[in-house]
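Researcher: We're teaching a course module on how sequence relates to structure. For the next exercise, students receive a sequence and then see the predicted structure as tokens, so they can try to spot secondary structure elements on their own. Here is the exercise chain.
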Amino acid sequence: MSVVLELEPEVEEKLKKRASARGTGLNEYLVSVLKKHANISRTLDDVLAPARKNFADSGMTEDELAELVDREIKAVRAERKALK
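Model: And here is the predicted structure for the students to work with:
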């Protein structure tokens, strides 16, 4: 796929400097920026998938997870209170 961009001279110059600083050409730099941006728009399910898999693989029940989270919250609160 080819795309033609109309950039203001100042924007083009900044992008060229960033590309040069990374040791790439402008086209390579722009492709990498666009690829990185495309990955940012993942869904919440995509982001949570590894955590869900780890939880399923752990064998822990939802009740056990809830107890663990409650214990950790209480521990963090106690630690913060002690620092005041």
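Model: If you want an answer key for the exercise: The chain has a mean pLDDT of 93. Helices lie at 9-21, 26-40, 44-58, 62-83.
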